[in-house]
TrEMBL record:
Alphabetized UniProt keyword annotations: TPR repeat
SUPFAM superfamilies, per the entry: HCP-like, TPR-like
Keyword Lyase: no
Phylogenetic lineage: Archaea, Methanobacteriati, Methanobacteriota, Stenosarchaea group, Methanomicrobia
Protein name: Tetratricopeptide repeat protein
The keyword rRNA-binding is annotated on this UniProt entry: no
Organism: Methanofollis formosanus
Length: 982
């Protein structure tokens, strides 16, 4: 039998996620809502780890080091990959258009295929942020299309099997994630509320967001998504883990490995995705098995990145040929991408291992130039001096020229370290010593001198050397046109005092580089690196925003006093009425309060200044005005270890707001800010304060609506309903209140009340299309209603409500090409299973497990003779259905098992326990005939459920027709149980 290696090679991570999500969905099936919410929070933390793993090279390095330290984790990863290979090897699928290696590898490969210079294309790509962004967007689209093709194949295969509803949901959820553009694993149902298994409802999402706001240090970075939030990925190529078993796995599965491929680039292209996915799985397996406390501690940590010596040593082993060329290429790539210090690190390593003197010269010079751009001029001078000494080992034709170039470089470094006088003297010496050289060489030296003069700000000398270069150079020289443009700029700005325009032009170029590096450092969580670049920015162009950003970094590193001073300076320099001014003042107040643990006059002054700076013209929308000021307050104070201090700060805000006579209710604004951050309980406390100060019925109604929304967000529809009702009492014409009541009643499956409420809203605003649409949707939902009023158990009613709520949440969204009913029908099935278990099976189970005739110790376990049977006593073993019910863990019977319950018991009627079970059911009114009727209905419902779970529905009418069929069966079962209990 031929095993297909394409799925595991090209879609290892996607296959792993299907399995991981399926296992997770299974783990939350029989939990209470509170337990399920807890599991989802842990699951969300693991997914946030994946976000950071793909963006933070320092964190990736740390994670992979933990994996490399643990043989147990490595064993688990190896076993999972082998199991996935066994599972996917029978899938007849391969993608001829699967993308190859990403990033620089793809750019170089594409250049070679087009006949372009791969080196030049790589450099051009590395230094152009717009080209990188366009490439990332195109690459994401190609990857997404390829993954969706594979997932569609998996879905079709899964739909051909029975009893695998969770696998289907896991596949469909991943398809939803891929189509949304998020590629960091199962990101909690970004598009479809039908996830997972009718368990991921809005209140769980609300709880996850609340937990993240309260506990994660870098929450803003974890919540960011899309291309604009992605850093330059150049450094991620240096974080691949060294998994010792990977080579063995590759040989076992593919018959070849990257390590043993030598110069065969095709093997690297084939297996790159397998290796990349293996590393992601490795990190996921490590992190997902940690405790919640460990996860939070790790996510809140700092992981400064440096290219490790261990990784460079691995390159020495696996790139034995042309090492100097490889390293010089990587140095250049990182240099042009702006990662100067990392380029220098590679240069130092390469130099220490290189034997060839000529190659050592080029490595030393490149290393020095990297240090120069990083503005470590002392290190740059040391390396330039080393390079100058090595020029003696070069060929005769280039030796003299390179020596003058390195003299020029050393002179430039002396300028930065010792001033311009030394520089001018050294440059004059070079000019004197090179005047005898041929014009071709002399022109290049003149251009080099001009560039050094430009970088050091000696623009009078730059002009002289550019003029000499133009007189000597061949017009076909690639630098000739650049020199002419530069000279034209000199001509146009000749009247400027001290070359002002030229200096501003140079300054702008440096600012662009610094801003790019600073932004990239922040996006990749590299805050030590960000501090270096923000200080470079401040040296050239200090602005209020830059001061504010530096203060955030200082605060991150615990330098609060300096951060407070910078915030005050930033606030004082900001324009009046600007958000920057408000933000700086409120940040000043927050940091001052947290640092001193007091709400003193300075803190109050900061709050007052922030409010005065907001301006009444900025109040449109929740993102602006006073709520705009409060959002960072809530974002910050929720992480304080002193809740009392947080409360005092907010009271001070409210007090200053009232003292200034500003329009609006400060308690209301604070509550809204809390609610925006999913802090619903805190929001309610402030809304209730706001209600005490409300002067009119309409004001109170608006506040009551917000209180209701806070309950609704938590999934407490009953409490939300009460507050919406109070709002209608205060303001009978409140659209929000009537629509809110309709939403609550719908979620509780009280469709008659929901229709009455939405009709009132429509009467108030007959032209409102949104309300009319809600009325149509509720009417459809009420066409066949589950008889909840006949069910005693609130837990069972809640399960059915969740199923209908999920269906309703789809209907309130946009019309879609197809609908997945799987999670809804699974929830209906769970409701029936739980109802039958609580009504029929649980009382019998408890009574039998307390009976000493059948249990050695009451409540502990069934006697072996009854459980396994006894040949000696001629007692058959208990049937599987009864073992399910009477076993130690509490389990309900699956729908399909009810149809076999009576026949299973009859087959083992010689087992006294089977007979006892049957008699007890009859005593409670559940005769064999009744159980068979229930079993037949359960069988029908199971068939309907399985059919709906494995099909896509293409219109809302089809969805509702299927729902009506299922609800009819559910109501028949409810009717049987209800009639017997009356």
């Amino acid at each position: 039998m031929m095993l297909n290696t394409h799925p595991i090679r090209d879609f290892l991570w996607e296959s792993y996620v299907i399995q991981a999500d399926q296992e997770f969905l299974q783990s939350v099936q029989d939990l209470s809502h509170e337990e399920k919410r807890d599991r989802f929070i842990d699951h969300a933390l693991t997914n946030q780890m994946l976000v950071r793993l793909k963006r933070d090279p320092g964190f990736a390095q740390y994670a992979f080091e933990r994996v490399e330290e643990s043989s147990a984790i490595q064993d688990r990863i190896r076993q999972k990959i082998l199991l996935l290979f066994g599972e996917t090897s029978s899938i007849p699928y391969s993608d001829p258009d699967v993308p190859g290696p990403k990033g620089l590898a793809e750019i170089v490969s594409a250049a070679a295929e087009k006949g372009l210079d791969p080196f030049e294309e790589a450099i051009r790509f590395s230094q152009d942020p717009f080209m990188i962004s366009d490439y990332n967007r195109d690459r994401s689209q190609r990857e997404g299309e390829s993954k969706l093709r594979y997932l569609q194949t998996r879905l079709e295969a899964a739909e051909g099997r029975i009893d695998n509803d969770l696998e289907i949901i896991a596949i469909r959820q991943q398809m939803s994630d891929q189509a949304s553009g998020l590629y960091y694993g199962p990101m909690m149902g970004v598009d479809d509320p039908l996830f997972p298994a009718a368990g991921f409802t809005d209140d769980i999402l609300h709880a996850i967001n609340r937990f993240s706001v309260q506990n994660l240090k870098f929450k803003g970075r974890y919540f960011a998504s899309g291309d604009s939030a992605l850093p330059d990925m150049s450094l991620m190529e240096w974080t691949i883990p060294i998994l010792p078993f990977l080579t063995i796995l590759e040989k076992a599965i593919f018959g070849k490995s990257v390590v043993d491929s030598g110069t065969d680039i095709n093997v690297v292209r084939e297996l790159w995705k397998f290796e990349a996915d293996s590393s992601t799985i490795a990190a996921y397996e490590w992190f997902s098995h940690l405790s919640r406390e460990e996860k939070i501690e790790i996510l809140n940590g700092d992981y400064p990145f440096s290219i490790g010596e261990k990784y460079l040593s691995e390159i020495d082993r696996y790139v034995p040929e042309n090492q100097s060329y490889y390293y010089l290429f990587r140095i250049s790539q990182l240099y042009y991408a702006g990662f100067y210090e990392h380029a220098a690190k590679i240069g130092e390593h390469a130099f220490s291992h290189e034997k060839d003197r000529k190659a050592k010269y080029y490595i030393a010079s490149s290393t020095a130039t990297s240090y120069r751009e990083y503005e470590d001029y002392q290190s740059a001078l040391r390396w330039y001096e080393t390079a100058r000494k090595l020029t003696k080992k070069l060929e005769q034709g280039t030796r003299e020229y390179k020596e003058f170039v390195e003299r020029k470089n050393c002179a430039e470094m002396q300028h930065y370290l010792n001033g311009s006088e030394r520089f001018r003297k050294d440059i004059a010496g070079i000019v004197k010593d090179t005047c005898h050289l041929p014009s071709e060489i002399l022109s290049s030296i003149e251009y080099n001198l001009a560039e050094a003069s430009r970088r050091t700000g000696e623009h009078d000398q730059e002009y002289e050397h550019l003029t000499e270069y133009v007189n000597l150079a061949n017009p076909k020289d690639p630098h000739f046109s650049i020199a002419l443009e530069r000279l034209d700029l000199f001509t146009r700005t000749m009247d400027d005092p001290d070359f002002q325009t030229i200096r501003e032009t140079e300054s702008r170029k440096r600012v662009e580089i610094y801003q790019r590096r600073y932004r990239n450092a922040v996006l990749s969580f590299q805050y030590m690196d960000a501090m270096h670049w923000i200080e470079c920015l401040l040296d050239i162009r200090p602005t209020p925003t830059t001061y504010s950003e530096k203060s955030s970094l200082l605060r991150h590193f615990g330098k609060n006093t300096e951060a407070i001073d910078l915030l005050r300076r930033a606030a004082e320099l900001s324009d009046e009425g600007s958000y920057t001014k408000s933000f700086c003042w409120i940040s000043f107040a927050l940091l001052k309060a947290r640092d001193t643990r007091e709400i003193d006059e300075e803190v109050s002054e900061g709050i007052r200044s922030a409010l005065c700076s907001a301006g009444t013209g900025n109040m449109a929308g929740p993102e602006n005005g006073y709520i705009g000021i409060l959002k960072p307050v809530i974002f910050d104070t929720t992480g304080w270890d002193d809740p009392a201090l947080s409360t005092r700060f907010l009271k001070a805000f409210s007090r200053e707001f009232s003292a200034l006579g500003l329009p609006g209710n400060p308690a209301l604004f604070i509550g809204q800010a809390y609610l925006l951050n999913s802090m619903s309980a805190e929001a309610r406390a402030w809304f209730q304060r706001a209600a005490e100060g409300a002067e009119s019925g309409s004001e109170r109604a608006a506040i009551f609506n917000l209180i209701a929304e806070s309950y609704f967000a938590e999934g407490d529809h009953e409490s939300a309903c009460k507050w919406f009702a109070r709002a209608t009492a205060e303001a009978p014409q409140s659209l929000d209140a009537h629509a809110g009541l309709a939403r609550c009643h719908t979620c509780m499956m009280e469709y008659d009340r929901a229709l009455a409420s939405i009709k009132k809203a429509c009467e108030i605003d007959p032209e409102n299309d949104r309300l009319r649409q809600m009325e149509e949707e509720i009417t459809r939902m009420s066409a066949n209603v589950i008889s909840l009023s006949r069910i005693d158990s609130e837990e069972v009613r809640s399960v059915f409500r969740t199923g209908d709520w999920l269906l309703y949440s789809v209907f309130t969204g946009p019309e879609r090409a197809s609908y997945d009913l799987g999670p809804v029908v699974i929830q209906y099935g769970k409701g029936v299973e739980k109802m039958l278990y609580e009504t029929i099976l649980l009382p019998i189970r408890e009574q039998i497990r307390q009976d000493s005739r059948f249990c050695t110790t009451p409540g502990i376990g069934i006697r072996s003779a009854f459980w396994k049977g006894s040949d000696e006593k001629k007692i058959p073993a208990l049937p599987f259905t009864l073992k399910t019910v009477l076993g130690t863990p509490e389990k309900s019977l699956a729908l399909g098992q009810w149809d076999k319950l009576v026949s299973d018991i009859r087959k083992t009627h010689k087992n006294p326990l089977s007979l006892k079970f049957l008699n007890m059911m009859e005593e409670k009114g559940f005769s064999e005939e009744v159980i068979n009727r229930i079993g037949s209905l359960c069988r029908d419902l199971s068939l309907e459920r399985n059919g709906a779970a494995h099909l896509s529905f293409y219109s809302r009418d089809e969805v509702m027709e299927k729902r009506r069929e299922m609800v009819t069966i559910i109501n028949k079962i409810i009717g049987i149980l209800s009639d017997l209990s009356e």
